[in-house]
Write a structure and sequence with these properties.
Shape: globular
Largest sheet: 7 strands, mixed
Strand content: 15-25%
Radius of gyration: 23 Å
Distance between the termini: 32 Å
CATH topology of the largest domain: FAD/NAD(P)-binding domain
Number of helices: 13
Number of domains: 3
CATH superfamily of the largest domain: FAD/NAD(P)-binding domain
Low-confidence stretches: 1-6
Structural class: alpha/beta
Oligomer: single chain
Bound molecules: flavin-adenine dinucleotide
CATH architecture of the largest domain: 3-Layer(bba) Sandwich
Amino acid sequence: MAAARLPHSKMGKMKTDIVIIGSGIGGLCAGALLAHSGYKTIVLERMPIAGGRYTSVKYKGYTVPTASWMLLYGKDDPVYKTLQEVGAPEIEMRGAGTPMARYRISGNIYDWPEKGALRYLLSVASHDEDEVNRVMTALGQAMSEETPSNEISFRDWLFQYTRNEAIHSIFQAQIATWCGMNADELPAGEFIRALLSFRGKSDFRIPKNGLKDIIDALEKVIKENGGEVWKLTAVKQIVVQDGESRSIIAERNGNEMEIEASVVISNIGPKKTIELAGVGNFSESYLREVNEKVRPSVGMDYLFITDKPLLDFPGTLYTTDTRRKVSWSVPTMMWPEHAPNGKHLLHGFAVPRSTLDYDPKEEHDIFMQDLMDVFPDFKKCGGQLLLRRNFCGEWPCTRAWQGYDVTQETPIENLYNVGDGAKPEGWIVGSGAAESGRIVARKIMERIKPWGR
Ligand SMILES: Cc1cc2nc3c(=O)[nH]c(=O)nc-3n(C[C@H](O)[C@H](O)[C@H](O)COP(=O)(O)OP(=O)(O)OC[C@H]3O[C@@H](n4cnc5c(N)ncnc54)[C@H](O)[C@@H]3O)c2cc1C
């Protein structure tokens, strides 16, 4: 059944190979690859800037991310690979160097060594080599022999090998920071696949002007290859006929327009895709799957201004002994130009005890207590709040919990989902969103030729 069509007597009309709804990192990676391969590509973005949750803006003189900070897998990141494949010029980026991370465990701080890091941290957490061997052997087997099922949470899986809370807290800190979830929400199998996806990859990188540098580069590739990226253009409807997507209807500068496209790629999350295409066009089973599976991950995100850097290295400090397991960093240790002269940024990120049911006010109070415990000199150093954001709902950490994503294909022909509700297994957050865009671009290139070829 087709969704009800809007009246379109005065509607502008266009035709293209590919329409992409939303200019998030998933949409732009797909768009850059397709435009570079000769497909006429139009990206439609309802906001005044491109990039969604994967860019940076200037706010009160500071460089601030809209959500995401870094290319998690550095030069092995799907975003970096995309830039290379489309011939974009090299972007100046920095990593943390050594140590990449530090962990506060039971009040003491330990560096993440370059080799044998996990064994070392488990060992200082438990002081019990038998316990460390048990956990390391189980992890080794899970990574090389039999991946645990997704039916068991990582926390329950780990309980089989240790009840040591300090060890659990090390994993919880990593899972919260990387996935915006808790260890009892993350499927064990997916945690192991995520660990494997990091194996042998280079460490994270942050561009000079934040992720805006990446978004600008991808946008440029699309435009240089005959495509368009239109801002302030909201898609209102995906027109479906006979089980196939035919066109989209969008509003731009107060006018409605219809763009006929061979393929529509939606970067706005599986639930919104269904809404725009019309519920009646999807099978009961698909609707049930999306409704049951797709739930957003959550992050409490804080940026503070200080007069001095509150950490003395540019990597991440994980505090595993705080009320919430928080990750802290001072981005201005890496890029001083992200703050006005003489000022620094302190970034803190934590996940509520349950991402499904929490009181934001209570979580905020807990976060502030953790801040004061970790940085007792915060006020003396001129510490003040720059920005406090609770990433959830329609602007979440990820649209689908890790391990709960839907496939990129939809039951509607020539309609695909990309983004962090359609991440491939094992690929996390923005890198997973980018990888979904790459997968969809490849699938389209295998199936459909650009016009005139
Ligand atoms: C605090 C925080 C830190 C993070 N850090 C990292 C990190 O360091 N590295 C990393 O890889 N990931 C990180 N992530 C996750 C990352 O930000 C997201 O996974 C990623 O940005 C999601 O991209 P996406 O492709 O799903 O698109 P989105 O960012 O969701 O973009 C979708 C776009 O579609 C537009 N849109 C919506 N509806 C319409 C419509 N009807 N018409 C037109 N346009 C529309 C929106 O305006 C938006 O711009 C972090 C997330 C949070 C919250």
